[in-house]
Amino acid sequence: MNATAAPPRLVILLLALAGFASMASMRVTDAMLPALSQAFARPVADVAQNITLFAIAYGVMQLAYGPLGDRHGTLRVIGLATLACAVGALGSALAESLPMLLLFRTLNGATAAAIIPLSMAWVGDNVPYEQRQVTLAHMLSGAVLGLISGQVAGGFLADTLGWQAAFMLLTLLFLGAGGLLLTTLHRQPQLSPPKADQGRIAFFSRIREVLLISRARRILALVFLEGIAAFGALAFVASHLYTRLDVSLTQAGLMVALFGVGGLIFAALARPLVARLGEPGLAAGGGVLMGLGFIGLALASLPTLATASAFAAGLGFYMMHSTLQINATQMAPAMRGTAMAVFAGCLFLGQSVGVSLGGLVLRLADSLWLLAGAGLWLLALGLAFAWLLRQWHGERATAAIAS
């Protein structure tokens, strides 16, 4: 498909639906950690391993899905992986012990790994750079809605029908999204043609080529550090509010869901914000908002303050992360599927490290210190990214003048 043509709205919608299910499954256990702790008679830090294992599997499997997408067509791989996610979600719903839950959550992470990074790669292949950040923001609004819905539904269903109901709902979502995507591709195979001329799938050689690019290494390091602090801390926010503010799991999930609402606001305002602030402004502003947001969540003594802080942290995250994404789509244009998969892998491997570190902090100190530390980390990271972007833009302008 020609990158100068507008991508079919139906494909963007289906990718958003698959992304919705993927992010909902990733965040669904955040608000239900206390309920899982009671159900399996294990500490919160132990049941939080389901988030860690999901993220590890998600990150590691990027090594496979990137090259597979480059070889067989991104949409085809996304559709098949989305159907496979239903197995992990159904197994999680039926799990009768913590080890079984951990097993199926790992499977869910391994299969969900294909959806969002390959969706971004498809947009990168089919949308010109000038329109790409806005298109990505619109498509990823589905993922943001999934993040919101996963956190809210996880807490609400744990309080009402039981935590298993959330996984049954996810099973239906994955079946619907995957089936519709593969049906659309069957009718319009030109949307994602296989690249048969690329030869065998050279997993490590493709990844090595991406890592040889200096700018790519810096972007990957930044997103890894972002994942440690942002997603690692986010996993414990609902439990922190549940304990600190003495609210229900449903209320805690609703407050944390404002993180995702911040992302939706960014998606709605992406065009004017990109034009007004530019990439360095988005990175710096995002880092400041995330820092203040997580520190506010740590110290909040009222639900209204926690809600406002979650919104600020979410808006800041999507301001900075979308800027990382747009730069990542240009890391290695000839191997965009692999590059975006490695990018997503670094983000979620960072999350797995962050959740593990968070569990360690919770054994030694209060969750207040965990969230406040993450806020300071993200503030510094945003400012560092903005400085790098100014350097890169200066180099690009100098090269343009010289040519």
TrEMBL record:
The chain crosses the membrane at residues 49-68, 75-95, 101-124, 136-157, 163-185, 219-242, 248-270, 282-302, 308-328, 340-362, 368-389. InterPro entries: MFS, MFS_dom, MFS_Efflux_Transporters, MFS_trans_sf. It comes from Billgrantia zhangzhouensis. It holds the Pfam family MFS_1. It is a multi-pass membrane protein. This is MFS transporter. It is found in: Cell membrane. The keyword Membrane applies. Residues 11-392 form the Major facilitator superfamily (MFS) profile domain. Its main location: membrane. Keywords: Cell membrane, Membrane, Transmembrane, Transmembrane helix. The keyword RNA-binding does not apply. The lineage of its organism: Bacteria, Pseudomonadati, Pseudomonadota, Gammaproteobacteria, Oceanospirillales. Gene3D superfamilies: MFS general substrate transporter like domains.
